[in-house]
Fold this sequence. Notes:
Elements: H1 9-23, E1 36-40, E2 44-45, H2 52-70, E3 74-78, E4 80-82, H3 85-98, H4 108-133, E5 143-144, H5 148-163, E6 167-177, E7 182-184, E8 189-205, H6 209-215, E9 222-227, E10 238-241, E11 255-257, E12 264-269, E13 281-284, H7 290-299, H8 325-338, E14 342-355, E15 363-372, H9 375-386, E16 391-393, H10 397-406, E17 411-412, E18 414-415, E19 425-430, E20 433-439, E21 452-455, E22 459-460, H11 462-466, H12 469-473, H13 480-485, E23 488-494, H14 498-513, E24 518-524, E25 527-528, H15 545-552, H16 554-562, E26 571-572, H17 575-600, H18 620-641, H19 645-671, H20 675-696, H21 701-710
Parallel strand pairs: 1-3, 2-4, 4-5, 10-12, 16-24, 23-24, 25-26
Antiparallel strand pairs: 6-7, 6-15, 8-9, 8-11, 8-14, 10-13, 11-12, 15-17, 18-22, 19-20, 19-21
The structure holds one RNA strand of 77 nucleotides.
Amino acid sequence: MSISKHYQPQKIENKIYKLWEKSGFLKTKISKNKKPFCIIMPPVNANGPLHIGHAVFVTLEDIMIRYQRMRQKNVLWLPGVDHAGFETQVVFEKELEKQGKTRFQIPPKKLYQMIFGFTQKNRKIVREQFKKLGASCDWSREKFTLEEGIIKIVYKTFKKLYKDGLVYRGKRIINWCPRHQTALSDLEIKHEIKKGKLWHIKYYLKSQKTNFQKQEKGSKNYIIVATTRPETMLGDTGIAVNPKDKRYKKFVGKTAILPLINREIPIVASNKVDVNFGTGAVKVTPACDVIDFEIAKEHHLKIIEIVGKDGKMKNVPPSYQGLTTLACREKIVKELQEKGYLEKAENYTHQISVCYKCKTPIEPLISEQWFVKIKPLAKAAMEAVEKGKIKFIPEYYKKIYFHWMKNIKDWNISRQIVWGIRIPIWYGIKNGKIKKIIVSEKKPKLPKGSDYLKKETDTFDTWFSSGQWPFAALGFPKNKDYKYFYPTSVMETGWDILFFWVARMIMLSLYVTGEVPFRYVFLHGLVRDKDRQKMSKSKGNVIDPLGVVNLYGADALRAALVFGTGAGKDIIISEEKIIGQKRFANKIWNASRFIFQQISSSKLKTQNIKLQFKIQNLTEADKKILNGLNEIIGSVTKDLDDFQFHNALQKIYQFFWHRFCDLYIEKSKKQLQEKALQEETLKILLYVLLQSIKLLHPFMPFLTEEIYQKLPIKNKQKCLMVESWPSQKPKI
RNA sequence: GGGCGCGUAGCUCAGUUGGUUAGAGCGCAUACUUGACGUGUAUGAGGUCCCCCGUUCAAAUCGGGGCGCGCCCACCA
């Protein structure tokens, strides 16, 4: 048995993965005698190559899966691929841009097919990359969010929501990205601090000048409003002040004249107005602002849509028509100034909403969209967590979850993009107006009283379908997998999608199945470099997981990602840290090599060593290492049960390197010289090695499997992967 | 404006119900080492556990206050 002096993962890892595939152990067979343990893999966005974040979740989930598999549970780790609607379309649009095209030039059907091809190509690549990381998932069960079966389930859910009155079509102010030309949910917008101006504009009163001045001596015949977006004044249909504001009491009920275009607008009172901000008087532009929209509803003000979906002015006098909002702003400010309407312009720093993808300022627009009435779903989702049916790791995320759930608002689930699941709606149209709404996947019969049917072209927010992933992927409601594995055991994902995904899964799964989707939510942090910087292509500090695997091996990468990183904390990774773990792998390799060499040069030379030894024959050193081993078997097992992966790995590292190698192996060199002790010592070396690689297997599966395959012991399983987890024995 | 988290060795972090001389990895210093491994071994330096007050026989750990840092949510025009 000659093995190389240094551990060379490149020579081993691919071979070992093939061994696992061939063994058939990756395929889950339901067995009623075992307890189920199931993780649904967060479906990967099929829109680009693997990044370090994927390596994190593959590592953590594979640790849990391998551990539970060795605990002899019936494990299922179900991989999936997400069409990732908007995200993927954005990536694809960038590709198109490179070719000098935009998506608006391509017919929707064609575009859909092009993106479909794009994702399927990526999907294959991702699968091979996950294998390189050692993911021991069941590839035969891999699911895609645009599969027929999945779409069917999503449609069923939508239908149920519609029937229960929990989904509705509404005309509302929504977040509109003028660049991507789609609505976005509240979660898909970010806030940016921007330096701007607060313009103070005089709105003169219409009221009979003379009379008014007689009544209120010395008072002005205009009201000053403050705004950061003067161009929206073209859509003003009112002015609002706080009813408690003494300064303006006399103005309420009067009429003002909109500067430049001389529209008459009423002055109304609303407690939505903050007395202390600006001048305390607000211009009301219902079509461009959420509060204004609400004030308009309260007071039945007119709504004039002045910004189009392309971000340009519409329904305005010809001189402004078609200008971008910014160009229009300049023009308006100039004219106000020239005509003396502009009181002043203050420098003002404020937050604006931007598209989370392209950072284009969001245009709040009035639009017809589909919303989920979310409060009832949120209520049930909070109760489930309150009752402990779902536990968060780390626990404090529970508080964040509750805080968000309590303040949740209706969820806009319609997107004006082609890449996604079409909302299964048909409209019966009469005289150009919607007469009837029919929920149906296929074209229904023309309803009575309608002239023709119109198909809804909007697609679902991608999170609407991925929010149903746990039960959809398992084949709700009839599939055996669903019946056996649902509710699943653990949902492991990044905290950054707690609201986007985890919360929605809990709400939708409870609503559809009546059960929680998973028992535990394990949240990992963001990967950062050694200077705590976020990894990004533009910063040039990205660590390419596959490059690392090629250089140092998947085991080293996996161990480095776990070492010193608690749940929920950001993961700091550097090449040095990975090299450190590569050294550990080498240490394990060489310890094994030493033991194998000792065996082949001893009289014990066989492939079938029985690992039994008599306690009375043991030396103090033997007992010490065996007791030490026992101790860490206990504590590592507990750590793994408690999701303390970093602690578990650190303990094994410490034990193997410093107690086993530095102390016991050194001692064994002397013991091996003594004939009476030789056989027992060899057995103990082998035994501790075997138990150690079992403990290490979830973390470093390739290396440990390779050593296991070489172990000259009796009663071996086909793979270490399915060996039984060590149990703690009484102290000797 | 509301909420969450963090502050322990030069760096990155453990420290699970309060309990000896506070730990790990990397880094650093010195020495050793041609038989598993220099990707190694041994020894060592390095800490007011952010500060103050309190609870306690006992506080890095629990409570209150302060300072500093990071993050999330939110319709101040």
